[in-house]
Write a structure and sequence with these properties.
By secondary structure, this protein is of the alpha+beta class. The protein is built from 5 helices and 6 strands.
């Protein structure tokens, strides 16, 4: 399960980046770091890449339906399911497990926001927090069926990890799912061994008729051969 190290790195990187953007105050530790003001932007590579601080209560890239509690519960169930599945396929090839580790890291990173950020920063009940997004990338214009998109929706490291993990999973899962370990293939092709008595039909010379008088048969006959002209 060393693949979970990557999950841990994603979670730590995602949370550090979010706290640098949002800021953090811990009076009892005398820690006070002022982040960005909500809704403000800072250019990094001109208009192509900006640091834009927003918060949302939805899923990846701000997709919103079902409410905060729904997404929190869904994230908990999904994370547990991925973790259990990773344990079940722990002997699978690394390219199959790595994308799942990325998805788990991203899901857990956003789950921390939803569960704890509301209570930690705003004094709200658990599961009432909002996800911090900050990566703002320019995108080529899309006009399709009345839908216009000029910039990619603002996202975070966790969102990028989930999306990349899903894409890698679609590629590698199909490529490696049909492969088996060499020992498994050899075992499948090996003849079955029952441990029971050998079939007489498999013995050398089986099925070969022998005569009682055949010296090579190794069998003695109790019948006395008749003499010429004598009837028994």
């Amino acid at each position: 399960m060393r693949v979970l190290y990557f999950t841990f790195v994603i979670i730590v990187a995602d949370q550090i980046a979010k706290l640098l953007v949002k800021g953090v105050r811990i009076p009892w530790l005398n820690i006070r770091y002022e982040g960005m003001a909500l809704g403000t932007s800072k250019p990094i590579l001109g208009e192509f890449l900006k640091l834009t601080y927003i918060e949302n209560a939805g899923m990846v890239f701000g997709i919103d339906f079902g409410g905060k509690v729904f997404f929190s519960v869904f994230s908990v169930i999904a994370s547990i399911g991925i973790l259990v599945y990773l344990f079940k396929i722990r002997n699978e090839s690394f390219p199959v497990r790595f994308p799942l580790a990325m998805i788990l890291g991203g899901a857990t990173g956003n789950l921390i926001d939803r569960v704890f950020y509301g209570a930690f920063f705003e004094g709200l009940p658990l599961f009432q927090g909002r996800v911090v997004d900050f990566i703002d990338i320019d995108f080529f214009n899309i006009d399709l069926l009345g839908y216009h998109l000029s910039r990619w929706p603002v996202f975070n490291i966790a969102d990028a990890s989930i999306t990349t993990g899903v894409l890698l999973l679609l590629v590698f899962r199909r490529r490696y799912s049909g492969q088996r370990e060499p020992g498994t293939v050899a075992a499948a092709n090996a003849p079955a061994f029952s441990g029971g008595p050998a079939d007489p039909a498999d013995e050398p010379g089986a099925g070969k008729a022998t005569s009682p008088s055949d010296p090579n048969s190794g069998v003695k006959s109790d019948r006395i051969p008749s003499r010429p002209g004598h009837q028994s």
